[in-house]
Amino acid sequence: MSASETSRLGAFRIEVRDFIRDKLPDDIRETVRSGRLGTAGETQRWQKILHEKGWVAPSWPVELGGVDWTPMQRNIFEEECALADCPPLDPMGLSMIGPLIIARGSQAQKDFYLPRILASEEKWCQGYSEPGSGSDLASLQTRAVADGDDYVVNGTKIWTSGTHAADRIFCLVRTDPDVKKQEGISLLLIDLKTPGISIRPIIGLNEMHFFNQIFFDDVRVPIANRVGEENRGWTYAKEVLGDERLQLSRTGENKRLLRQLKTIAAQEDHGGEKLADQDWFRRKLRRAEVRLKALDYTKLRFLQRAEAGEAIGPEVSMLKLQGSELIQELDEMLLEAVGHYGLPYDKSWMLIPRSELNESPIGSDYAGMLSANRFRHKGYTIAGGSSEVQRTIISKRVLGL
Question: How far is the C-alpha of 189 from the C-alpha of 109, rounded, in Å?
Answer without folding.
Answer: 9
